[in-house]
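Fold in tokens:
===
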Amino acid sequence: MEAPTGTTIRCVGGIAFDDHGRLLLIRRRNDPGSGQWSLPGGRVEPGETDETAVIRELREETGLDVIPGTVIGSVRRGPYLIFDYACTVAGGVLTAGDDASDVRWSEAADLAELEARGELVDLLYVTLRDWNALPRA
């Protein structure tokens, strides 16, 4: 569904790492960025807080239960204004679902390789680098 011209759609994303310092990624099932790897997240529904939306979106897309922390940064992609939150994984089982066709934990070298092959959504790598949020593994 396209947004009316001039409308901003508030979205959230989750930046989560496992115990080894690997970054949580999903492969997008739908546009924008269909088939590319990205952070899990999505639209904030009417009446939801950002925190509730992050918990819901990560559960739907990754099967994981998270505890959202502070905002790491925000980006605008077309009509989407995305606020990305640091998240701690509290449980669940890693499983692709909802808008995700695949899900994975990514090490630094793996993320760089995905970037080199053009398999990350636009500007994800540089944004994470600028936010000091690249995988530590």
Residues 9-130 form a domain with the Nucleoside Triphosphate Pyrophosphohydrolase fold (CATH 3.90.79.10). Residues 50-62 form the longest helix (13 residues). Helices lie at 50-62, 108-116, 124-130. Residues 23 and 81 are 22 Å apart (CA to CA).
